[in-house]
Amino acid sequence: MSEMRLYDTAGNRLYLNAEERAAFLAVARCKPARDRTLCETLHFTGCRPSELLEITPARVDLSGGTITIRSLKKRKDASGNSKIVYRSVPVPPEYLDTLNMAHGIREAQKSRKQAAAPIWPLSRVRVWQIVKGIMIEAGIPEAPHRSPKGLRHGFGINATVNGIPLHMLQKWMGHAQLSTTAIYADAVGKEEQDIAARMWGQDSLGVRKSVVQ
Q1: What is the 3-state secondary structure (H, E, C) of the chain?
Q2: pLDDT bracket for residue 203 (50, 70, 90)
Q3: Edge to edge, what strands does the sheet with 66-76 contain?
Q4: Residue 200 binned pLDDT confidence (cut-offs 50, 70, 90)
Q5: pLDDT, tens digit (0-9, with 9 covering 90-100), for 32-55
């Protein structure tokens, strides 16, 4: 298995930064409901496109505020047998409201057949095309990070910058090993400045925060 990285061998960034993530989301929210919710799901859960295509209404917890995702990476139990692993990722209530309105999630959950049907009955290639098209429109430059994988890595970086503990991020992203998740602590540029600013007791503009005595 190849080691997961945030940069390719030429030093090119493999993740979307905060500005690119915001631009991507802004453009996605102007698109038809199917494409908008597809992009918002990738943005807010950090899931892989193949995992997104398995999400059904039954896996959307409107009251609990989570999306349950089946981890597609193979796992083995103590006996060495393959096992299925699910993870629940907390998401914003506004996103869930949009998802429910666009796809009739609450109504679909009343029918066993509809509750088990994929929300986005598309191919992986089509998902890639939708995401790439929106990234281009958002002005994200042609580079290795302009991809669904770049969006997933951006989710990990964003969580790290905002102080999410690595063990929690490991669960949200479906990593088998904490060492895999730890690559997101290797943030650079603007992201690293934000992390360092908290250590110094400053904001990202270098203005020292007031301290309550």
Answers
A1: CCCCCCECCCCCECCCCHHHHHHHHHHHCCCCHHHHHHHHHHHHHCCCHHHHCCCCHHHEECCCCEEEEEEEEEEECCCCCEEEEEEEEECCHHHHHHHHHHHCHHHHCCCHHHHCCCCCCCCHHHHHHHHHHHHHHCCCCCCCCCCHHHHHHHHHHHHHHCCCCHHHHHHHHCCCCHHHHHHHHCCCHHHHHHHHHHHHCECCCCCECCCCC
A2: low
A3: 60-61, 66-76, 82-90
A4: confident
A5: 999 999 999 999 999 999 999 999
Q: How many whole angstroms separate alpha carbon 184 and alpha carbon 160? A: 6
| Residues 51/56/61/66 CA torsion (nearest 10 deg) | 10
For all residues of the chain together, what is the average pLDDT? 88
Distance CA 28, CA 35 (A): 7
How is domain 18-151 classified at the architecture level of CATH? Orthogonal Bundle (1.10)
The pTM is what? 0.85
Residue 61 β-bridge partners: 66
Q: Which tokens go with 136? A: 């281009």
pLDDT in tens, 101-122: 999 999 999 999 999 999 999 9
